[in-house]
Every structure is written in C-alpha cells, then in structure tokens.
Design brief:
Elements lengths: L27 H14 L20 E2 L5 E2 L2 E2 L7 E2 H19 L17 H14 L7 H10 L9 E10 L6 H17 L5 H10 L10 E5 L6 H7 L6 E2 L4 E3 L2 E11 L6 H31 L2 E2 L13
Antiparallel strand pairs: 1-4, 2-3, 2-10, 5-6, 5-9, 7-9, 8-9
Helix pairs in contact: 1-8, 2-3, 4-8
C-alpha cells in the first residue's frame, strides 16, 4: 500500500486504508445506499428541476443566501453555506422523515435537529419505512452469471494498480462549475501529452490539492481497500492503462487519474464469488428503488431552493 499518506483525497489513509466518509444523518445502511445514490445522480437527467429562490447559487456550487425547504420545513439556517450535494442530502433525508411520519412510524411531534441531524427515533423509523416500501427480490442465478461474465475482474483477489493523480478538491464556497472546467481542460491536455509523464508531474505539482502533488502525483501501488469506495469503483476492475478518459469523482473532489500499471491478481470462479455478486446486485437494486421512491416523494412535495429528481406517477422498481 502507498497513497499520499493522509487519507484526505480518496487515495488511501495511514490507518485502515479507507478514507473516512463525511458525517451522515442516516444510519450506516442508509448512508451506504445514499452514497451510491449520489454517485448516480449526476448521470440521471432531472425530470423536474425545482427552481431555487432568488439569491441562491445554481448548479453544484454553494447555496447560502436563502433557506431551502421541503413542505415548509427548513433545510438550512439563514446564511448557512452548504454545497448542493449536502443540501440535496438534507432534502432527501427530510423527505424520508416526513414520509415516516405520514406512514405512522414516527410521531408528528418529531422535528429535524440542528444542521440537518435527525433523531434516533426518526432514523429507526426511516429504516422501517424503507424496509417496507422497497420490496426487492433476490437476484436470480442467471442474473448473477451475466454479471460475472460482464465484470470478470470485479472480484479479483489481490488486484492492484499503480496510480498518479491530480486532485481538484471541492471545498465550501468553491465554484464547482469553474473547478470542473479547469479539471476537464487539464484532463484533455494530459491525455494528449506524449512526454513520458513529465507534463503530468508538472501539472500535479501546480494544481493538485493532494500532498502527492509534490511527488508528481504519484500514489504508488494501491488496492481497492486502500481507496475511498467511489474512487475504487472508477479505477479498478478494468484494463485501461494511461490517463483515464474521464474525471474520477470522489467525496473529496475531481481527480485526473493515470494508471501507470496494473496487476489483475487472481480471478476467482463464479462459485467462489456467487454470494458477493448477489450482494452487489441487491445493493444496486436497492439504490435504484430508493432513487425511484425519492422521486415519488419529491413529486408529491413542495420543494424550494434545491434541485431534486422528481416524478408524479408510480415507477416500476
């Protein structure tokens, strides 16, 4: 294991090797599902964009000038600075909390806490609500085999990759649109470079918000366990060598990643990974069902100051 040694960029840490997740208002089970859900939201066209009130900042930048609300319940304090993702997470949590109240699982007297926190009772009620509303069948043997054939390296044992990266950190108040434009421009520039890596090293030293920038962005050899989950999903399980054709998104920001070398490790048989594949497919189905359920809740709610994916008719789970 290598990495930058701080655990602050998604590439690894000095303790467990997994970057710590931001604090969540949901239980660990809900937080894991929401993390996967957020990772897909950028790729899903908004069916109903709820316009922010005057004075808010659009896109995925900071939202602070006005108070966002779900059915009249405030999501943020006046002048509290939140990026769009944090505000959207609060909105999703509040939609679920109110749905739990409407289902009789949570007393009407329950109210949101400070800074988006919810009570233990609300968290338990949301867990019960989702268990009741998200009816998921177990994946079939055929579905598991199809997944195994389509993702032969997904459960490789001992898979490693030698990586370099340039991190554009997303911090409170940053103009995410401009940050993304800068990252995308650098991505194109580095993919076109043919100088043995000299330009990548120079760019990392100039632009990267990771300590590895002083070593040309070099992270050394990493495994999945050494990385934040969303970073690992984008980097491992493939065969690409060189600067990846896409920006890698993590909870820490936008990464331009170069795969210097790969070690695919050992490929287990289907029988060895059958249960792991079934768990992966069930988690994917859970995320899809949660997204659709939140779309229905958002379609039936009055949402102000935050853009959510919404639907006004039932969706097939």
């Amino acid at each position: 294991m290598s990495g930058c040694g701080t655990g602050s960029c998604g590439c690894g840490s000095t303790d467990s090797g997994v970057a710590a997740a931001p604090a969540s208002t949901l239980t660990p089970t809900q937080a894991a599902a929401y993390e996967a859900l957020v990772a897909t939201l950028d790729d899903v066209p908004l069916q109903a964009t709820l316009a922010p009130p005057a004075g808010t900042v659009g896109g995925r930048g900071s939202v602070a000038a006005e108070v966002a609300r779900v059915n009249g319940v405030a999501l943020n304090a006046p002048h509290e600075s939140l990026d769009e993702e944090a505000l959207r997470q609060r909105a999703c949590t509040e939609l679920l909390r109110q749905a739990a109240q409407q289902a009789g699982l949570l007393p009407a007297s329950d109210v949101p806490g400070v800074e988006g926190a919810i009570s233990v009772q609300a968290s338990d009620a949301i867990e019960q609500l989702l268990e009741r509303e998200l009816d998921l069948p177990d994946p079939s043997e055929e579905a598991c085999r199809r997944y195994h054939e389509a993702h032969p390296a997904a459960h490789a044992q001992g898979e490693r990759a030698q990586l370099r990266h340039v991190l554009f950190a997303v911090t409170p108040g940053v103009d995410v649109k401009q940050l993304r434009l800068r990252a995308e421009a650098l991505l194109i520039e580095l993919r076109c470079a043919d100088d043995g890596g000299a330009q990548f090293a120079k760019a990392a030293a100039q632009w990267s918000n990771c300590p590895s920038g002083q070593q040309g962005g070099d992270l050394g050899w990493l495994t999945r366990a050494d990385c934040a989950p969303e970073f690992a999903r984008e980097v491992f399980g493939g065969a690409e060598i060189g600067v990846l054709a896409r920006l890698v998104h993590s909870r820490f920001g936008l990464h331009v990643v170069e795969v210097v070398a790969r070690d695919p490790g050992q490929q287990p048989s289907f029988e060895e990974v059958r249960q792991a594949i079934a768990l992966t497919l069930r988690q994917q189905a859970w995320v899809n069902a949660l997204r659709q359920y939140l779309q229905l809740l958002a379609g039936a709610a009055v949402v102000e100051g935050v853009a959510l994916d919404a639907a006004d008719t039932p969706l097939v789970q």
